[in-house]
Amino acid sequence: MKGICILGATGSIGVSTLDVVARHPHLYRVVALTANTNTDLLFSQCLEHHPDYAVVVDEKRVQAFREKIKASIVSDIKVLSGAKALEQVASLPAVDSVMAAIVGAAGLLPSLAAAKAGKTVLLANKEALVMSGDIFMQAVTAAGAQLLPIDSEHNAIFQCMPAAYQAGQHSPLVRRILLTASGGPFRQTPLEQLPDVTPAQAVAHPNWDMGKKISVDSATMMNKGLEMIEACLLFNMQPEQIQIVIHPQSVIHSMVDYVDGTVLAQMGNPDMRIPIAHALAAPERFDSGAEPLDIFKVGRMDFEAPDFQRFPCLRLAYEAIHAGGIMPTVLNAANEIAVEAFLQGQIRFTDIAKVIERSMAAFTVRPADTLEIVLDADQQARVAANQVLSQLDR
Question: Is the domain covering 2-149 a CATH 3.40.50.720 domain?
């Protein structure tokens, strides 16, 4: 049996991972579960899966959670608190695989700790790779860790790559990657109506069940911009070799175009248990719990090029990766601040891109060759984004 640590157990990826793991109790044992504030769900997960460790990042909530655990039938679970505890459980000797599913910059350090400890890293946190770039990939190589992408698109690409492919390798057999996107809920909304869309409308994704932040990123297509940057790193390709294709049915999860003209596509229902099960079972396969794809029910598949006027965040992502250095980190941090402000009703939907663009304009490109530089750029970008927010015309 393999031991697994789930970073972000109460989020949608964490919940789906536990669903898949529960279907194969003879293969995986849950060693650690972590959550930020959702201690009620974390407690239920502890009762069902009985991990050795539970981490509550929010230190204001940990004492009540600890007492609840002590009074339960799983009183032997060790309860830890704080962000450093995430790195601790991701590096435990009993852990073989780490599901890195903490959204945003908060997932960087524990994901990096798992890589440095030589674990099999199931990477669902795209921001960690966007922020740290080569630093993360170098840590994977140096420690002999295995990196398996969980995002449905990157997992699809990984499945379509040549036999025995390892993340970070460059394959001369591959000409380009076709990275698919649903287009989100506003793909056909008249442009003049976009300033007035609400957070509730933005998080109502037509195909996928995701958290609020990722759903807004999908609506702006920043999610696809971050995935494009991630794909450059995971598959060692140039931005010009990553073509984004809007595919509203979300049946083809991405494609790989080979030099001989062959295009391989991975297909399936929009269910995150499919890429999760692929990574957990690799190089074998097992049941994910997802419904089989009914190609006749799908009926048709459409494809279109993205419009940068409708999706300016996508343009900003390409600008960031071309600039290099700290700019992807700045892009990501400013986006997190802007999205949270939108969700709180402080800014309009179309202001998200404005906050990011003006924040990026405040920085000069410099190399991001140490973790300290990356973390400093992240913090400075958040300060800059908050300053832009305070000066934004409402």
Answer: yes
